[in-house]
Amino acid sequence: MSELTKEQLKKQSQDFIKLPVWDTYYYSSGLLRKKMEDNIPGFLDKNKKHKILDYGCGVRPYEYIFDDYKSDYTGVDVGENPHADIRIEPDEKLPLNDGEYDAVLSSQVLEHVENVDLYLSECNRVLKKNGLLILSTHGTWQFHSAPVDVQRWTSYGLKNLINKYDFEILDFIPSLGQLALTSQLRLTFFHSFVKEIAKPLKLIYYPLSLLYQFKMMLEDAITPQRVKERDSAYYIVIAKKK
Predict the structure, then answer these.
(1) Separation in Å, CA 216 to CA 34, 176, 222, 232
(2) Domains observed in the chain
(3) Averaged over 118-128, what is the pLDDT?
(4) Residue 161 in this model has a pLDDT that exceeds 50
(5) Of 72, 139, 173, 223, which is least surrounded by CB within 10 A?
(6) What does the pLDDT look like over 200-223, one tens digit per residue?
(7) Which residues, 6 or more positions from 45, have their beta carbon under 8 angstroms from its beta carbon?
(8) Is 200 helix (H, G, I), strand (E, B) or coil?
Protein backbone atom coordinates (compact mmCIF):
# COMPACT_ATOMS: atom_id res chain seq x y z
CA MET A 1 0.00 0.00 0.00
CA SER A 2 1.38 3.41 -0.98
CA GLU A 3 2.09 5.97 1.73
CA LEU A 4 -0.51 8.62 2.40
CA THR A 5 0.36 12.22 1.65
CA LYS A 6 0.39 14.89 4.37
CA GLU A 7 -2.85 16.25 2.95
CA GLN A 8 -4.52 12.82 3.12
CA LEU A 9 -3.35 12.30 6.71
CA LYS A 10 -4.65 15.73 7.68
CA LYS A 11 -8.02 15.00 6.06
CA GLN A 12 -8.30 11.75 8.04
CA SER A 13 -7.71 13.69 11.25
CA GLN A 14 -10.30 16.33 10.35
CA ASP A 15 -12.89 13.78 9.22
CA PHE A 16 -12.54 11.95 12.54
CA ILE A 17 -13.79 14.92 14.57
CA LYS A 18 -15.84 16.94 12.06
CA LEU A 19 -18.78 14.61 11.59
CA PRO A 20 -21.95 15.35 9.59
CA VAL A 21 -24.94 16.30 11.72
CA TRP A 22 -26.73 13.02 10.94
CA ASP A 23 -23.78 10.89 12.09
CA THR A 24 -24.44 8.58 15.06
CA TYR A 25 -21.77 10.33 17.16
CA TYR A 26 -22.21 13.91 15.94
CA TYR A 27 -23.28 15.41 19.27
CA SER A 28 -21.26 13.28 21.68
CA SER A 29 -18.04 13.55 19.66
CA GLY A 30 -18.52 17.26 19.05
CA LEU A 31 -19.17 17.90 22.74
CA LEU A 32 -15.98 16.11 23.74
CA ARG A 33 -14.01 18.05 21.13
CA LYS A 34 -15.38 21.38 22.39
CA LYS A 35 -14.48 20.55 25.98
CA MET A 36 -10.95 19.65 24.87
CA GLU A 37 -10.68 22.93 22.93
CA ASP A 38 -12.08 25.01 25.78
CA ASN A 39 -10.05 23.50 28.62
CA ILE A 40 -6.62 22.39 27.39
CA PRO A 41 -5.16 25.78 26.32
CA GLY A 42 -5.76 27.25 29.77
CA PHE A 43 -3.15 24.90 31.23
CA LEU A 44 -0.47 25.64 28.60
CA ASP A 45 2.04 28.47 29.02
CA LYS A 46 1.53 31.00 26.22
CA ASN A 47 5.09 32.25 26.65
CA LYS A 48 6.85 28.98 25.82
CA LYS A 49 6.78 26.22 23.25
CA HIS A 50 6.01 22.72 24.49
CA LYS A 51 7.16 19.25 23.54
CA ILE A 52 3.97 17.21 23.24
CA LEU A 53 3.65 13.42 23.21
CA ASP A 54 0.42 11.94 21.83
CA TYR A 55 0.49 8.48 23.42
CA GLY A 56 -1.85 6.22 21.45
CA CYS A 57 -2.25 8.88 18.80
CA GLY A 58 -4.70 7.24 16.39
CA VAL A 59 -5.29 9.82 13.64
CA ARG A 60 -3.99 12.66 15.89
CA PRO A 61 -7.44 14.32 15.99
CA TYR A 62 -6.54 16.92 18.64
CA GLU A 63 -3.10 17.98 17.45
CA TYR A 64 -4.51 21.26 16.15
CA ILE A 65 -5.32 22.37 19.71
CA PHE A 66 -1.57 22.56 20.39
CA ASP A 67 -0.61 24.41 17.19
CA ASP A 68 0.10 27.70 18.96
CA TYR A 69 1.91 26.05 21.86
CA LYS A 70 4.09 23.29 20.45
CA SER A 71 7.74 23.14 19.52
CA ASP A 72 7.44 19.45 18.74
CA TYR A 73 4.52 17.01 18.51
CA THR A 74 5.26 13.28 18.53
CA GLY A 75 2.65 10.60 17.88
CA VAL A 76 3.14 7.10 19.30
CA ASP A 77 0.89 4.14 18.55
CA VAL A 78 0.78 0.37 18.21
CA GLY A 79 0.44 -1.36 14.87
CA GLU A 80 0.89 0.02 11.37
CA ASN A 81 -0.47 3.50 11.92
CA PRO A 82 0.71 5.99 9.27
CA HIS A 83 -0.05 8.88 11.66
CA ALA A 84 2.46 7.61 14.23
CA ASP A 85 6.03 8.89 14.35
CA ILE A 86 6.98 6.00 16.66
CA ARG A 87 5.42 2.53 16.55
CA ILE A 88 5.60 0.21 19.53
CA GLU A 89 4.26 -3.14 20.71
CA PRO A 90 1.38 -3.09 23.25
CA ASP A 91 3.59 -4.00 26.24
CA GLU A 92 6.66 -2.10 25.11
CA LYS A 93 8.17 0.81 27.02
CA LEU A 94 8.49 4.08 25.16
CA PRO A 95 11.85 4.51 23.40
CA LEU A 96 12.11 7.99 24.91
CA ASN A 97 14.18 9.65 27.62
CA ASP A 98 13.02 10.37 31.16
CA GLY A 99 11.60 13.87 31.63
CA GLU A 100 11.62 14.65 27.91
CA TYR A 101 8.12 16.09 27.41
CA ASP A 102 6.12 19.03 28.70
CA ALA A 103 2.76 17.32 28.13
CA VAL A 104 1.39 13.88 27.35
CA LEU A 105 -1.95 13.63 25.56
CA SER A 106 -3.93 10.40 25.93
CA SER A 107 -7.28 10.72 24.15
CA GLN A 108 -9.66 7.74 24.32
CA VAL A 109 -6.81 5.28 24.80
CA LEU A 110 -6.88 4.05 28.39
CA GLU A 111 -10.00 1.91 27.96
CA HIS A 112 -8.09 -0.09 25.31
CA VAL A 113 -4.93 -0.60 27.39
CA GLU A 114 -4.44 -4.04 28.97
CA ASN A 115 -1.36 -3.05 30.99
CA VAL A 116 -2.57 0.17 32.63
CA ASP A 117 0.29 0.12 35.14
CA LEU A 118 2.91 0.24 32.38
CA TYR A 119 1.01 2.86 30.41
CA LEU A 120 0.53 5.35 33.24
CA SER A 121 4.03 4.72 34.57
CA GLU A 122 5.41 5.61 31.15
CA CYS A 123 3.24 8.73 31.02
CA ASN A 124 4.83 9.85 34.27
CA ARG A 125 8.38 8.82 33.33
CA VAL A 126 8.62 10.80 30.09
CA LEU A 127 7.13 13.96 31.61
CA LYS A 128 9.20 16.77 33.05
CA LYS A 129 8.52 17.73 36.68
CA ASN A 130 5.18 19.61 36.72
CA GLY A 131 4.54 18.34 33.19
CA LEU A 132 0.91 17.86 32.17
CA LEU A 133 -1.03 14.66 31.63
CA ILE A 134 -4.12 15.37 29.52
CA LEU A 135 -6.20 12.22 29.47
CA SER A 136 -9.71 11.43 28.27
CA THR A 137 -11.42 8.08 28.63
CA HIS A 138 -14.84 6.53 29.16
CA GLY A 139 -17.11 6.42 32.13
CA THR A 140 -20.05 4.55 30.59
CA TRP A 141 -19.94 3.48 26.93
CA GLN A 142 -20.74 0.56 24.68
CA PHE A 143 -18.17 -2.11 23.85
CA HIS A 144 -15.91 -1.04 21.00
CA SER A 145 -12.95 -3.23 20.18
CA ALA A 146 -10.06 -1.32 18.63
CA PRO A 147 -8.31 -3.73 18.81
CA VAL A 148 -9.40 -4.61 22.37
CA ASP A 149 -11.80 -2.97 24.81
CA VAL A 150 -10.80 -3.62 28.41
CA GLN A 151 -12.32 -1.31 31.02
CA ARG A 152 -14.47 1.64 32.10
CA TRP A 153 -14.24 3.90 35.17
CA THR A 154 -16.40 5.64 37.71
CA SER A 155 -15.39 9.24 38.37
CA TYR A 156 -13.99 8.25 41.76
CA GLY A 157 -12.17 5.23 40.35
CA LEU A 158 -10.47 7.23 37.61
CA LYS A 159 -9.36 9.99 39.97
CA ASN A 160 -8.01 7.40 42.37
CA LEU A 161 -6.12 5.64 39.56
CA ILE A 162 -4.45 8.82 38.28
CA ASN A 163 -3.42 9.86 41.80
CA LYS A 164 -1.67 6.53 42.33
CA TYR A 165 0.85 7.35 39.60
CA ASP A 166 2.25 10.45 41.30
CA PHE A 167 0.02 12.98 39.57
CA GLU A 168 -1.90 15.89 41.07
CA ILE A 169 -5.28 16.36 39.39
CA LEU A 170 -5.80 19.97 38.33
CA ASP A 171 -9.18 19.57 36.62
CA PHE A 172 -11.71 16.82 36.04
CA ILE A 173 -14.20 17.51 33.25
CA PRO A 174 -17.23 15.29 32.49
CA SER A 175 -18.81 15.13 29.05
CA LEU A 176 -22.22 13.74 28.05
CA GLY A 177 -24.36 13.09 31.12
CA GLN A 178 -26.27 9.89 31.70
CA LEU A 179 -29.63 11.15 30.39
CA ALA A 180 -28.18 11.91 26.94
CA LEU A 181 -25.98 8.84 27.15
CA THR A 182 -29.01 6.53 27.25
CA SER A 183 -30.11 8.04 23.93
CA GLN A 184 -26.61 7.64 22.51
CA LEU A 185 -26.50 3.95 23.46
CA ARG A 186 -29.95 3.37 21.96
CA LEU A 187 -28.98 5.14 18.73
CA THR A 188 -25.76 3.14 18.52
CA PHE A 189 -27.80 -0.07 18.77
CA PHE A 190 -30.12 1.13 16.01
CA HIS A 191 -27.11 1.93 13.83
CA SER A 192 -25.59 -1.52 14.34
CA PHE A 193 -28.96 -3.17 13.63
CA VAL A 194 -29.43 -1.26 10.37
CA LYS A 195 -25.82 -1.74 9.30
CA GLU A 196 -25.63 -5.48 10.00
CA ILE A 197 -29.18 -6.85 9.80
CA ALA A 198 -31.84 -4.53 8.37
CA LYS A 199 -29.96 -2.67 5.64
CA PRO A 200 -33.10 -1.48 3.78
CA LEU A 201 -33.97 0.59 6.88
CA LYS A 202 -30.91 2.77 6.26
CA LEU A 203 -33.16 5.29 4.50
CA ILE A 204 -35.01 6.06 7.72
CA TYR A 205 -31.98 5.75 10.01
CA TYR A 206 -30.34 9.06 9.10
CA PRO A 207 -33.44 11.20 9.78
CA LEU A 208 -33.82 9.29 13.05
CA SER A 209 -30.16 9.98 13.91
CA LEU A 210 -30.62 13.67 13.16
CA LEU A 211 -33.60 13.77 15.53
CA TYR A 212 -31.57 12.01 18.21
CA GLN A 213 -28.76 14.57 17.99
CA PHE A 214 -31.17 17.32 19.01
CA LYS A 215 -32.73 15.04 21.62
CA MET A 216 -29.31 14.50 23.22
CA MET A 217 -28.55 18.23 23.18
CA LEU A 218 -31.77 18.90 25.12
CA GLU A 219 -31.21 16.02 27.54
CA ASP A 220 -27.68 17.13 28.27
CA ALA A 221 -28.77 20.74 28.78
CA ILE A 222 -31.24 19.75 31.52
CA THR A 223 -28.87 17.37 33.33
CA PRO A 224 -27.36 19.07 36.43
CA GLN A 225 -23.57 19.46 36.43
CA ARG A 226 -23.28 17.62 39.76
CA VAL A 227 -24.93 14.60 38.12
CA LYS A 228 -22.57 14.76 35.13
CA GLU A 229 -19.57 14.91 37.46
CA ARG A 230 -20.72 11.67 39.04
CA ASP A 231 -21.79 9.79 35.88
CA SER A 232 -20.84 10.62 32.30
CA ALA A 233 -19.84 8.99 29.04
CA TYR A 234 -16.43 10.69 28.95
CA TYR A 235 -14.07 12.14 31.52
CA ILE A 236 -11.18 14.51 30.78
CA VAL A 237 -8.44 14.57 33.39
CA ILE A 238 -5.82 17.31 33.45
CA ALA A 239 -3.08 16.51 35.96
CA LYS A 240 0.52 17.50 36.62
CA LYS A 241 3.47 15.33 37.53
CA LYS A 242 4.51 15.89 41.13
Answers:
(1) 16, 9, 10, 13
(2) 6-175+234-241 (3.40.50.150)
(3) 98
(4) yes
(5) 72
(6) 888 899 999 999 999 999 999 999
(7) 69
(8) helix
